[in-house]
Design a protein that fits this description.
This protein folds into two domains: about 180 residues, Rossmann fold, CATH 3.40.50.1100; about 100 residues, Rossmann fold, CATH 3.40.50.1100. The strands form three sheets. It has a six-stranded mixed sheet with strand order 3-4-12-9-10-11, sandwiched between helices. A four-stranded parallel sheet has the order 7-6-5-8, sandwiched between helices. Helix content is about 40%, strand content about 15%. It is α/β, with parallel strands linked by helices. Helix 1 runs antiparallel to helix 2, helix 2 crosses helix 7 and helix 13 packs across helix 14.
Length: about 350
């Protein structure tokens, strides 16, 4: 029997299922109203992550306030837990369980959510996935399958698994529920820091920035940040549609799908002001700076948004109040065994 993971009962027979039905009777449109309704469903299962207020002078830049949204403190080590719970709580999960393809963070998030909700999970990852992320997935009792050397390879293998078993696919970014869950970051940030002018967000497949852009809908300036070696949204903006782009570099396990999602692109085109590209060296420097000045341990993808500021790729105007989303911390950069 299919069940509602939110209420642990037969689907559509409880108040929790009624909430789910109210959200999902709409189309795949991503709106503020649907994000707010989704946030209410996932709230018992996710952390409301804190803000850290600092000054850019702490990093050797001209003095200016900066607010860090610390999604690296989310369950499973990244913002991805929001979209994972949204999928598992809003959709009817078959007895075959769920399957996900991931560079690591999405897989860890789906594995975590599935463990908490007692749902079988199989996670496909490429061989570039970091040991920290693979270890997290195994630690959440999911079946881990290594498939190919890029996210696209893992995705193809996961799709074959879905066809063979009937498991429910949970897409890392091109799924309405994923964007609705990630959009809750914007809801929290607007409530906790209503005075920010600009938010910088790292981009891989675009589920995070798509959900956030849908929430703010032009009320806050959104700046996308991508590695130079994985310019997925930059390439899509140039082409006028999602297109294949290079997928490499230091943050390849989190910010290097082949292309951005179809669902996020209209929201990005409408509400993302521009894309800033950053080098691998700039990302490394941002990781080091966040650790040495704030004692924040981030993975490369988690530091990419701040790399745009630290490297001068994005320069705040006088009086501009900026926020930076620190989105992940699944790394073995700090070792406490020594």
């Amino acid at each position: 029997m299919e069940h509602c993971a939110g209420c642990n009962g037969p689907a559509t027979t409880s108040p929790g299922c009624a909430i789910k039905d109210a959200i999902m009777t709409a189309t795949s449109e991503i709106t503020r109203e649907r994000i707010a309704a989704t946030e209410a469903v996932i709230r018992p299962h996710i952390r409301r992550t804190p803000l850290l207020k600092a000054d850019l002078a702490d990093f050797g830049l001209p003095a200016a306030p900066v607010t860090f949204k610390l999604e690296l403190l989310q369950h499973s080590g990244s913002f991805k837990a929001r979209g994972a719970f949204a999928n598992l709580l809003l959709r009817q999960v078959p007895q075959a369980g769920v399957v996900a393809a991931s560079g690591g963070n999405h897989g860890a998030a789906v594995a975590y959510a599935a463990q908490r909700l007692k749902i079988p999970a199989t996670i496909f990852v490429p061989d570039i996935t970091s040991p920290a992320k693979a270890g997290r997935i195994r630690g959440y009792d999911a079946e881990l399958v290594i498939a190919g050397n890029r996210y696209a390879d893992a995705l193809a293998a996961s799709e074959a698994h879905v066809a063979r078993t009937g498991a429910m696919a949970v897409h890392a970014y091109d799924q309405a529920e994923t964007l609705l869950g990630q959009g809750s970051v914007g809801l929290e940030l607007e409530h906790d820091a209503p005075d920010i002018d600009t938010l910088l967000v790292a981009v891989g497949g675009g589920g995070l920035i798509g959900g956030i852009a849908a929430w703010f809908a032009g009320r806050t300036r959104i700046i996308a940040v991508e590695p130079e070696l994985s310019p997925t949204l930059h390439s899509a903006f140039a082409a006028g549609a999602p297109v294949d782009a290079p997928a490499g570099g230091l943050a390849a396990d989190s910010l290097a799908p082949r292309r951005v999602g179809e669902l996020m692109f209209p929201m990005a085109r409408a509400h993302v002001e521009r894309v800033v590209l950053v080098s691998d060296d700039a990302i490394r420097q941002a990781q080091n700076a966040l650790w040495s000045r704030l004692r924040l341990v981030t993975e490369p993808g988690g530091a990419a948004a701040f790399a745009a500021v630290l490297s001068g790729g994005y320069r705040p105007s006088p009086g501009e109040r900026i926020a930076v989303l620190v989105c992940g911390a699944n790394t073995t950069a700090v070792n406490f065994d020594g």
